[in-house]
Amino acid sequence: MCKFYGWENADVKDERGLTPRDYYNILSKCWCAETCAPRMRADWTTDNRTLGQCSITAFLMQEIYGGKVHGVPMEDGNYHCFNIVDDCVFDLTSEQFGAQKLSYNNCPEQFPDVHFSKEEKRLRYEHLKELLEAHFTGEDSKCE
User: Where are the domains of the chain?
Assistant: First the structure.
């Protein structure tokens, strides 16, 4: 069952015919402590798989669907990343916030070169991408 922000209208399809709802279900098996942001890793659990996964997931979805990545400004000075593809707004990692409601209006665009200037984040992105590719090729995933 999809729990992410925008799931009801996340009907955009990739070249495989998959929607963000499909990717949510696939990535739910790929998100792991190793792909979680280091500052949140101690709090990551299989019950909250989306914790610390926002930017790498949003940029991976941008690679698949195009569109733009935007960021909700957070109190700690960081941004929570989400996707806008045409008129479709979705945030595959929103459930990490539980009942807290985020405002997805007028959020600044985010860019991979800024986010991936941190090598650890680029490496986590590459790892998540490898796990996703392993799903499609039938290879074993290390994070299921």
Answer: 18-136
